[in-house]
Amino acid sequence: MLRKYLTFLILASFVLGSIAACQGPTTVASDSNAASEQNERAYKKGKKALDEKKFDEAKELLFPAAENGNANAQYELGNMFFNGVGVQTDHLMAAKWFQKAALQGRAGAQAQLGSMYLIGLGVSIDHAKAAGWYQKAALQGDTSAQTILGNMYLNGQWIPKDSAKAVAWYQKAAELGDANAQTIVGNLYLTGQGLAQNLAKAEEWLQKSAAQGNASAMTKLGYMNFIGLGVPKDLAKAAKWYQKAASRGNAEAQTSLGNMLSTGQGMPKDLVSAAQWYQKAAMQGNVEAQTNLISAKAEIADAKKMKAPDPSQ
Q1: Does the pTM of the predicted model rise above 0.90?
Q2: What is the pLDDT of residues 272-304, one digit of tens each?
Q3: For the residues of the chain, what is the DSSP string, one character each?
């Protein structure tokens, strides 16, 4: 009888303990979830206020949410301090908030932190940490981090050179729609660097990038059409691509467009317009444009002299 009673007490104690163990964490988890949801609501309201440039309201909402561990709010505060939006620019504070968000897995914060370690902004330069944070962000699909990692592997900067890994990261970013990566992949196919030369694929990736407004891709397409590389030679198309890229500030395209205008290739000859494009490119340091600008100005001056009436007659 005593043994049965003791067995009952042991079982009862075990059951009650199990119930208590289940109830306790459930209550804590419930409270934690409620707090997390409250912080997320505060973040969303703060982000809305930030987008509407209501900076005081944004700070009142974002700071408490960030202090309470909301990674999205921490990331937004990092951006605010980094860019001086609604607050004084403070790279130390930016690094602090990016670090907190990055440790919680926020890919954008990891990429930003990687860049800060790369150049020593708000933190001491640490290329190993930069590569580590870029790697974490890249694995989560951050295309800017993937592209930067590709650059690092391609050039052997701060990590061992590995062309295969470089190409793999570029392709991942390109497939996710990153215009810069698409341009790089297109150029790799164009030159046969790291990938077997494939002019059709080169044009395909450059077209995708150009459709997103990438001026470098437009310039490459202009070049392909100008010399007939992988596509039929078409000076009119070349001029169109150069004009699009030049209007977006691409110095190489501005120079090429100036060349076409100065020689009358694919468009009527126009030395004045050519000089204007050379001037824009020259101001960006393009050496070819600087040289051609001198020649264009001299030719314009000679043309004016020939048109001027002879005072002796």
Answers
A1: no
A2: 999 999 999 999 999 999 999 999 999 999 988
A3: -HHHHHHHHHHHHHHHHHHHHHHHHHHHHHHHHHHHHHHHHHHHHHHHHHHTT-HHHHHHHHHHHHHTT-HHHHHHHHHHHHHTSSS---HHHHHHHHHHHHHTT-HHHHHHHHHHHHHTSSS---HHHHHHHHHHHHHTT-HHHHHHHHHHHHHTSSS---HHHHHHHHHHHHHTT-HHHHHHHHHHHHHTSSS---HHHHHHHHHHHHHTT-HHHHHHHHHHHHHTSSS---HHHHHHHHHHHHHTT-HHHHHHHHHHHHHTSSS---HHHHHHHHHHHHTTT-HHHHHHHHHHHHHHHHHHHHHS--TT-
